Amino acid sequence: RKIIFEKQWFYLDNAIGHVYGTTFEVTSGGSLQPKQEAEETNKETKEAGTDNRNIVDDGKSQKLTHDDIKALKDKGIKGQEIVQQLIENSTTFRDKTEFAQDKYIKKKKKKYEALITIVKPSTRILSTMYYAREPGKINHLRYDTLAQMLTLGNIRAGNKMIVMETCAGLVLGAVMERMGGYGSIIQMYPGGGPVRAATSCFGFPKVFFDNLHEFPLSKVDSLLSGTFSTETLSSEPEDNALAEEESNGLTDEKQTSLQKTEGESTTEAAMEINQTEEQETMDINAEDVEHRENKEKENKENVQEKQRKQWERRKKLLETAALLREKNADGLIVASKFHPTSLLLALLEFVAPSRPFVVYCQYKEPLLECYTKLRERGGVINLKLSETWLRNYQVLPDRSHPKLTMSGGGGYLLSGITVVLDKGKSDSSNLEALKMEEPSSKRCRVQDLHC
Amino acid sequence: MSFVEYGDLIKDGDTAIVFLGHESMFPVKVQHGTVTQTKYGVIRHSTDLIGKKYGSKVTCSKGGWVFILHPTPELWTMNLPHRTQILYSTDISIITMMLELKPGSIVCESGTGSGSLSHAVIRTVAPMGHLYTVEFHQQRAEKAREEFREHGVEHLVTVTNQDVCKNGFGVSNIADAVFLDIPSPWEAIGHAKSALKAEGGRICSFSPCIEQVQRTCLAMEEYGFTEINTLEILLRVYNVRTISLQIPDLGKAAEDNSSTGFDSSNPSNQGSPCSNLQQGAVQFKSGVPLREMVGHTGYLTFATKS
Asked: What EC number(s) does the entry state (chain B) (predicted)?
C-alpha cells in the first residue's frame, strides 16, 4: 500500500517487524530502510561569518538548478549527499553565522533527507496531529485543552463515564486510553450513529470495546420523561451507522455473534426478551418472519439477518438505556459542535452526586449561558470557566526563546462538580448561587450584578 | 472511598472534602466521635457524615450548610498541606498526557515534595501500574508515606528516601515515564535513562528557570534522548458576570423631536442583544478575567528515550 505524506511517497512493507520508534530512510522506489547511525562530521570547525551585513538575498547564491538537484535525486543519491552538494554549491554559506548555517542545514535536511519515524499512537500523538492537520474535525480542540479535560474529569480505570463528542472519536479514544479497558463508557451520539474514525487509530485491543456503549441523543428526552421505547428507531440510518463502524473494523464481534445465532429461529430469540414494552413489537416481528418463511429461501435468510441485526441493536439499546436510568455515572465529558446548554442540562441527570463534569466549547459565549443555566438549575458547585495558554520554546545554547504562542485558539472549558440536587426548594438554590459567587469585595471597578 | 475508586457513602476513616462556598474548602478525616468546626458551626462526624451520600448537603450547628465531596487528586491538590511549592492541575494535566500515562504505567518521580503530582499519577496508573517516588528530605518522605497509607493507595506507590542525582530511582529498565522536579535535573538525566525501559520511554523535567532548562536540554541530548521539546502552560480563569455599563449623556439635539439616531431613554430599542435599563445603561453577560493570573509556574521539557 502506497503512502503519500508531505510530498514523499513510500511503502510500509519493510517496516513490519521493527520496533516502534525506528527511523527509516526513504530510498529509491519508495522502500524503507532503517537509518544507519551516520558519522557526525558536523563537529569539525567550519568557516563561518559573524553577521549578515554583507549577505545579499538575490536568489542567486545556490549554483545548482532545479534540474541539477532532480538529476541527483534520480541518480539515487542519498539525501545527506544532496545536502552536502547544496552546501558546497552555495556561494554565501561560508559567510553565514554558525547559527544561520545550522538553520540552513536543518532546513535542507528536512527537505531532502526523507526520514520517516514510525511511532506508536497515543493521545499525545493523535491529539497534536489532529490539531495540526484537521482542527476542523475536532472543533479546534487544542491538545492541552483535551489534557485538562481528562484530568479535571478524573478519568481513570473503573469509572462509568458518559461521553458526548463530535470530534471524530478523538475525545472518546483519549477517555478510553485513560480508562485502560476498565469501567464503562456510554457514548451519546447525534443522528444515526457515533463517528469513531479517530478512535480506531489508537489501536486499542478488542476487549476495550466490550464495555463501550452508545445511545442516541434523540432518545434522551423520552428516557428522562419515562416514555422511552425502541419502536420508533428506523432501520435505515442504523444500517448506515453499522456500515460506518464496519469501515473502522469494529463489527467483527457483531458478525461473529450473528453467525452464532444462525439456525435459531427469530421467534425463539424474540421470546427471550421479557419485561419490556417491546414484547409486542417483537411478537409482531416474529409473525412477519413466519410469513416470509414461505417465500424463497435466500430471501428468507437475508431478512432473518436483518431482523436479527435489528433485534441485536434494540437489545443493546435497552441495555444502555437501563445503564443510563441508574443515574449513577461517575462523570460527564462534552465536546461537540452543538450548543452545550441543553446537552448539559439533560445529560447531568444521569450523573451521580459528587462527580466532576467538563464541557468544551470552541467559543466562550455559549459557556457563559451554560454557566447561568446551571446556576439556575442548582445541584452543581465549583463551576469554573477557563482556557489554557500554551507556549512552545526553542532551547538552544545562546538561542533560547519562545517559538510560537498558541493562546486564544484552543477553546474553552466549563467544569464543575455535581451535588445532591435540592429539587423542592428554589430559595435555597438562590442562596446557593449567591454562596458560590465570588464575594463582592473582590470584584473589579466596573459596576456589575450577579448573574 | 478511595483516591483510585469512587464510593457512594461516607465511611469511617475516609478523607472527605468539606465545601463551604466559592473556593472555600478543606479536607477532613472522617472519624466516629469527632467534631469539625466550621464558620457555619459544628459538624458531628457520627451523625452528620458517616453513612451519608457523598455530595450531600450537611447543615451545621449554627444553621449554615456545607457540601461533603468525594476526594479526587484535583481536590486534594487544592487542599493539601504544603510542605513545598506544589504542582497544580494545569501543569499536571499536560504532564500526564505528554508522558502518555495510563493504567498500568510504571512511573518514576523525584522529588515527591508534598505529593500533589504523586496523587494524580497514582490515580492514572491504577490498578496495575506503580509509582516509584524519590524524596531526599527524610521527614517529607515519611509524611508522604503516611498520606498514601491514609488514602488507601500504598500498594500503588513506593517512596524512597535518597538523593536521585547520586543514587537514582532504585529501579532499572522498567519505567514508562520519568518526572523530575528538582533543582539540578541535568544531574539526574543519566539515572533517568537507566530507570526507563529500553525503547520509547518518556521523560519530563520541570524547572522554573530557563538556565536550568538549557542545561537539562543539553544533558538530554548528550544522553541520546530525542524529540526534546520545551513548553509552558498557563491557566486563564473567567468569572461569569452580568455587567451593566452606563450610556453617556451626549446632550440633546436642538429640536425637540429626537426620533433619529440612538435614543438612549427609549426602552423599546430592539435589535441589540443587550437590554437597556431605564437609567440609560446596557447590560450584557461577560466572562471577566481575574484581576491577577498566574504568569509562570515552570518550563516543562519532554523527551523520548530512543
From this structure: 2.1.1.220
B102 and B171 co-located in one domain: yes
Question: Is B265 among the domain residues?
Answer: no
Give domain status of residue B198, yes or no. Answer: yes
Please answer yes or no on whether B102 and A420 come within 8 Å at the CB atom: no
**One domain for residues B137 and B57:** no
Residue A372 grid cell: 447561568
Q: Does the annotation place B12 within a ligand binding site? A: no
Percent of chain A at pLDDT exceeding 70: 75
Cα distance between residue A317 and residue B51, in whole Å: 34
> The C-alpha cell of A167 is what?
470530534
Please tell me whether residues B60 and B168 are part of one structural domain: no
Q: Confirm whether residue B115 is marked as ligand binding.
A: yes
Q: Inspect the interface and report whether the beta carbons of A393 and B299 lie closer than 8 Å.
A: yes
Tell me which of A156, A417, A421, A442 to substitute to probe the interface with B (most B C-beta atoms closer than 10 Å). Answer: A156
Are B180 and B32 within one domain?
no
CA distance A391 to chain B (A): 5
SS3 A228: coil
Nearest to B92 among A124, A151, A353 (CB): A151
CA separation for the pair A251, B78 (Å, rounded): 44
Please check whether residues B106 and B177 belong to one and the same domain: yes
Specify the pTM. Answer: 0.82
B116 carries a ligand binding annotation: yes
B281 in Cβ contact with B249 (< 8 Å):
no
> Is B172 flagged in the annotation as binding?
no
A180 contacts in chain B (CB < 8 Å)? 102-104, 128
B14, B148: one domain: no
pLDDT, tens digit, 9 for 90 and up, residues A397-425: 888 999 877 777 899 999 999 999 876 54
CA-based end-to-end distance of chain A? 58
Structure confidence by residue, pLDDT tens digits, A264-287: 333 333 333 333 444 444 444 555
Nearest residue to A221 (alpha-carbon basis) of A312, A314, A321, A328:
A321
B67 and B80 belong to one structural domain: no
Q: Which residue has the cell 473582590?
A: A442
Domain edge (last residue) among B43, B71, B99:
B71
C-alpha grid cell for residue A115? 526520514
Instruction: Please answer yes or no on whether A21 and B304 come within 8 Å at the CB atom.
Output: yes
A129 in contact with B, Cβ within 8 Å: no
Total domains in chain B come to: 2
- How many residue pairs from chains A and B have C-beta atoms closer than 8 A? 212
Smallest Cβ–Cβ distance between A156 and the set B90, B124, B243 belongs to B124
- Distance CA(A400)–CA(B230), nearest Å, equals 10
Residues B223, B305: Cα–Cα separation, whole Å = 9
Partner B contacted by A211 (CB < 8 A): no
- List the single residue in A364, A412, A448 with the smallest CB-CB distance to B243: A448
B2: in domain: no
- Say whether B24 counts as a known binding-site residue: no
Question: Tell me: the pLDDT tens digits for A67-91?
Answer: 888 887 777 777 778 888 888 888 8
Per-residue DSSP letter, A266 = H
Which of the listed residues B71, B90, B111 is the one where a domain comes to its end?
A: B71
Q: What is the CATH number of the domain that holds B189?
A: 3.40.50.150
Q: What is the least distance, in Å, from the CA of B263 to any CA of chain A?
A: 22
**Is the alpha carbon torsion for B135, B140, B146, B152 positive or negative?**
negative
- Does residue B216 register a pLDDT over 90? yes
Query: What is the distance in angstroms between the Cα of B159 and the nearest Cα belonging to chain A?
Result: 22
Same domain, B44 and B113: no
What domains appear along chain A, each with residue ranges and CATH number?
2-38+46-118 (no CATH), 121-228+314-422 (3.40.50.150)
The A residues from 6 to 35 touching B (CB cutoff 8 Å) are: 19-21
Give residue-wise pLDDT tens across range A90-103.
Answer: 888 888 888 888 88
CATH value at residue B54 = 3.10.330.20
Domain membership of residue B273 (yes or no) is: no
Domain that holds residue B183: 75-234+295-305
